[in-house]
Design brief:
It contains 3 helices and no strands. The protein is mainly α.
């Protein structure tokens, strides 16, 4: 459940099948998505601080 797109797919599949979803899986999916999002924002800010990328 640490790969965001895969974990979201698995959660949605369980919801569609009307199976119970473990709260720990939901929390882990949300946390991994947030961590990946923050990491990508951090990388983007590092790239935008460089003058070469701005032109």
């Amino acid at each position: 459940m640490t790969i965001p797109s895969l974990s979201q797919h698995l959660l949605i599949t369980e919801i569609i099948k009307n199976e119970p979803v473990a709260m720990s899986w939901t929390i882990l999916s949300m946390a991994s998505s947030a961590v990946l999002g923050l990491a990508l924002v951090w990388v983007a800010t590092l790239l935008y601080r460089r003058e070469a990328i701005l032109g």
